[in-house]
Amino acid sequence: MPVRRRQPRRPETGAAERYREMGIGAALSRPWDYPTACGELAALLRLGYADLPKAAQALVASDVLLAFRLLPDVQTGYAVSTANVLLQAVEVALPKQKKAQAVSEFKHSIIAHKRRARVQQISGSPHIPQDILVHIFSFLDMHSLVAAGLVCWSWNSAANDNKLWKMNYSIFFGLSHLSCNNIPVSGVQYSTNSVPNYPNFSWKESFHTKYAGC
């Protein structure tokens, strides 16, 4: 019996499958991955969207809308700023009709995001200025910091402060001078200086990535 040869995938189908395998849609639904996923979408729009087959372009445009729809539910300090970066890429890369749809979705989500933040502040505990919260949280251990971020909107925002996580990264991986297995490594010093200081760099995400590799 002759062996049936497997038909090669069409380039259009292959590109769409490779995009699905990136898992950007799933990452957008995880608050801690939302900023990175928005950044990847923005980079893809600027650098490669025009060259993608139509099926892959449709998936990218769908994830853009998903990113904007999820914005009100994402309680991280970089949610709005990274969504703005994505919006700028949308205005450059998407065709007129899809761009108008995405911009409209973004505007609705920004309004909902502000309303939700206002409700959280009014219905929550007496308001504590953000800088004071961040200062208080700087004395917490990691488990307590994560738990504090689950209390309310304003506490979550403070617990995700990038400078706070940069400090914790330095303390946890730098000052101990230990490897992940708690074995001293001769001549090796971990510090935040070895990590790129990009404007949208997430120290919390970097902490999670490095800790997961231990």
Helices and strands in order:
Blueprint: H1 11-22, H2 24-28, H3 34-47, H4 54-70, H5 79-93, H6 96-123, H7 130-137, H8 142-148, H9 153-159, H10 162-175, H11 203-212
Helix pairs in contact: 1-4, 3-4, 3-5, 4-6, 5-6, 7-9, 10-11
InterPro entries: At5g52880_ARM, F-box-like_dom_sf, F-box_dom
Domain F-box: 122-168
Organism: Zea mays
* Bulk shape: globular
Average pLDDT number: 77
N-to-C series of helices and strands = HHHHHHHHHHH
Please state roughly what percent of the residues sit in beta strands, choosing from under 5%, 5-15%, 15-25%, 25-35%, 35-45% or over 45%.
under 5%
Count of separate DSSP helical elements: 11
Helix content: 55-70%
The count of β-strands is 0
Number of domains: 2
Instruction: Give the structural class.
Output: mainly alpha
Main beta sheet: none
Low-confidence stretches: 176-194
Between the first and last Cα atoms, what is the distance in angstroms?
A: 52 Å
Radius of gyration: 21 Å
Pfam family, one: At5g52880_ARM
Protein name: F-box domain-containing protein
Organism: Zea mays
